[in-house]
Write a structure and sequence with these properties.
Strand order of the largest sheet: 2-3-4-1-5
Strand content: 5-15%
Order of helices and strands: HHEHHEHHHEHHEHEHHHHHHHHH
Number of domains: 3
Distance between the termini: 75 Å
Largest sheet: 5 strands, parallel
Amino acid sequence: MIGFYVFLIFDRINQIRMLFRDIAGQNIVKEQLLRSVKEGRIGHAQLFAGGEGSGSLLLALAYAQYLNCLSPLADDSCGVCSSCVKAAKLVHPDIHFVFPVIKKEGSKNTPVSDDYIKEYRELLLEHKYFSAQQWFAAISDGRKSGLIYADESSVILRKLSLKNFEAKYKVMIIWLPERMNDTGANKLLKILEEPPASTVFLLVSENPQLLLSTILSRTQLVNIPPIDTDSLTKALSARFDMPESSTRVAARLAKGNYVKAVQNLDATKEQSGFFDMFAMLMRSCYSRKIFDIIKWVEIVAPLTRDKTKAFIDYSIGMLRESYIYNFKQPELVYLTPAEEGFVSKFAVFINDKNIEPMTEGLQLAYAHIEQNGNARIVLFDMAIKMVSMFKA
């Protein structure tokens, strides 16, 4: 029975760990960070500059955990010491978090990060990769953008004035510092330049060009590129029960953005069945089989308005992919194996003369559906007009 409880404890640790090896790709950056610790070249103020979905925040978390690991390995934290367990749960007393927040309606008080730390931990532990917009949606209606208000600087200075509780390094992780109020940012300049002993600032920015030049000059830059396609594909396949062909297309379309790749996979699930409907439409229009077109309309028309619009968007994308396929540049084509099998034969019928009118016809149908037009009439009219375009 004791062994069973030990298993549960270690299994829980593995679920919430913040280790370098759990971050998709970024091997060069990981090696750079590990080397800085081993060689004793730990910058007291570092700027992790990487676009949305690059894993820059996770790298900062893994780095902070490694700095304070009690039994560090050659290429990662141990993951099981008391320091690692607290860091993984985002409750380590010497690892602090600052991030943009949103002022509540009617509130007279200016919020600080600590007011939303519970929500921040929950989102980070559940999703790990998330966008600023997803964070703002989690703490409000998503219509407002958050800020790091001036009052946050006083909280930062107060926390850093205290002695370390237990760790070797006190780490201050500031996510999206470009959203910091200028007055507050200026208050931090002195401590950024001359922080207390054993203090490390990790600024995690998606748009470093928006930071004050005085902050940029006081930080050591760590460039974080988009995630390479192979690593992103592997990470998506491990997390989602989907074929690698789908995760690879989602990864390529996302261009190294994990958040975008997940959105692409969600869209793929939503588009389930769209390929068959698109292929049926194209075959019916090309062969001029009116009864097949009518049959196609009866299949598509019962869809909800939003799903019909999504199908039209998908069809526009497939036409564009078919047109591009003719240029024989595989790196420009983003298709699943099933889609490519169809497009490889269909693409010859899409050319300079008909790609634009076909796309415009679909866009017009989209507009009419959005205006609550009769789906059967709109779709049939669009399909009939498309028949003649194949002879262009």
